[in-house]
Amino acid sequence: YLLYVPTSFTPNGDNVNDVFKPLGEGIDVTNYHFMVFDRWGEKLFETDNIAEGWDGTFNGNPVQTGVYIWKVKAKEFYRNVNTEHSGHVNLLR
To answer: Which of 39, 50, 65, 48 shows the shortest CA–CA distance to 3?
Structure first.
C-alpha cells in the first residue's frame, strides 16, 4: 500500500499540475473516498472515483489561491485494512 498526496497544485489551464488528486498503489478502488474542504470546513469537492481529482473550483467557479484541507479514506487492497489520511494542499494560481 502506497499513497502519495501532492502538497501544491496550479489549476491555471496550462495542463501541468492542473488537477489535485492522491496517487497510489495497492488501493482498493471500490473502497475509496476523497474530499477537499476550505479552512472553515465547507466541503468543496468529493469523489469515490480514484481517477478523479479536484480542479480548484467550487460550484463551477475558481476558488482563491490558498491552503485547503484534504481527507482520503481508503482500503488497502492486499491486507483488508481501512485507512484515513488528511493534510493540506496549497492552491497556487
So the answer is: 50
2-49 tens-digit pLDDT: 999 999 999 999 999 999 999 999 999 999 999 999 999 999 999 999
Residue 3 burial (CB count, 10 A): 15
What is the rounded CA–CA span in Å between residue 80 and residue 29? 12
Cβ contact 18:55 at 8 Å: yes
Cell numbers found for residue 77: 487492497
C-alpha 75 chain-centroid distance? 16
Nearby residues of 46 by Cβ (< 8 Å), 6 or more positions away = 33, 34, 35, 36
- Kindly report whether the global pTM for this prediction surpasses the value 0.70: yes
Q: Which residues contact 16 (CB under 8 A, 6 or more apart)?
A: 10
